[in-house]
């Protein structure tokens, strides 16, 4: 009798697990897809249990780099990074669905549907939850990864620290950090000798160092030197997390820790240990001594206030998660945009000359100290119209974020489309930025003049230009980033000219953000 009861219980338990697995892998995905299918949305047919993953992997691994890739620089790199998305868009149109295992995805490169998505500003449209676990070591539960009220509370704390009035107070340190890099470059060019007076260098490395120094001083009142190890370990985490399986969702099928997972979590512990030293030094009274609080101080005070003035493990997690986020996003995205911009200007020396003429016309042909004083004035920065056009065009062609993900956390109406709960939406930023129906037949060409009258006049559907995201989750650091780009590029272009190095190999790849696989090698000369 006892054995019979035990066997019955075991059968019920196994049956329950099987039914649960079938619901997760078969019935629920079919229900989600049927909602969109009835509305005319199509896509590649998924196979059980991996969906379209085998097809995606086959297309990705079959990509061949052209033999002239080193000499020929083209700006339509989307088919080489996302061959499956590109092929399916050509077959099914700008809106289609596909599957990665139990996850159902909606691809969107249609400006009209995008408008409906942008108008939906409730907390029910958030970041994909399935990406949360693999990105946890890097971003934790910080503002980039969180959803719902937890995200809203963090935005309320952090966003004001990047308002224009606060960013204006950071201009001086942006100038100081850039001047330091300029002196290094001048010294290295001098070491080369007067005969050549040209330096062949990988500028993206130096610009990353510069951006790291700026974000450290602006937000954490520390220098790049102090946070150097933190930055390097975060870069290693980024590299380890930059696997195709992250977007495929294949990590959902893994239950045991692999070597790469252990490496990532060890790096996370090392980063947090170093950040804790900075945090506890600040808690003990060290660090900021001026009237304006930095972001770290604001995070500490907000976390303590939420816990009745106590510093608990929960408050430490909140601070550490957002410090890691700021270190990664604040330094990586801006340095990449500056690097891609200088690469584009190397291909178009006529635009370099125009920008120098604009800077001289506004600030005069003075030494760098006079230029420093000139660029401290906000009115001066707002007059750099052509520089703004160049940055906007660079962000159109090489925005760090090539896909913008969202997840329907509840059933919702987006434009004319009924979207079921748990559908993952991928807004194809890079494709939207290259749509000839929106930008014209020269959509894959570098033409800053298209932004001469602003974004609203640059294309047919201005809402489809979203280098900083959109809606309530628009990048909170947009003002900071644009200010930094204007200052860095103004100073560098005023004293140096750039041309493409013979060692440059054009190969944009996705490593969470769009990066140059082989660096950006340019020839740098003193003007």
Keywords:
527 residues, three-stranded antiparallel β-sheet, single chain, alpha+beta, 57% helix
CATH topology of the domain at 120-401 and 467-526: Cytochrome p450
End-to-end gap: 93 Å
Please identify the top-level CATH class of the domain at 120-401 and 467-526: Mainly Alpha
Mean pLDDT rating? 87
The number of helical segments is 23
Q: By CATH's scheme, which homologous superfamily of the domain at 120-401 and 467-526 applies?
A: Cytochrome P450
Shape verdict:
globular
Q: Please state the CA-atom Rg, rounded to the nearest Å.
A: 25 Å
Organism: Rosa chinensis (China rose)
Family: Belongs to the cytochrome P450 family.
Protein name: Putative cytochrome P450
Subcellular location: Membrane
Task: Outline the fold blueprint.
Layout: H1 2-37, H2 53-61, H3 78-81, H4 83-92, E1 95-100, E2 103-108, H5 111-118, E3 125-126, H6 132-139, H7 148-158, H8 164-168, H9 171-192, E4 198-202, H10 203-220, H11 224-241, H12 244-248, H13 259-283, H14 295-306, H15 313-347, H16 349-363, H17 368-375, H18 378-382, H19 385-398, E5 404-408, E6 412-414, E7 417-419, E8 424-427, H20 429-432, H21 436-439, H22 455-458, H23 478-495, E9 496-500, E10 508-511, E11 513-516, E12 521-526
Helix pairs in contact: 6-11, 9-10, 9-23, 10-11, 10-15, 11-13, 13-15, 14-15, 15-19, 15-23, 16-19
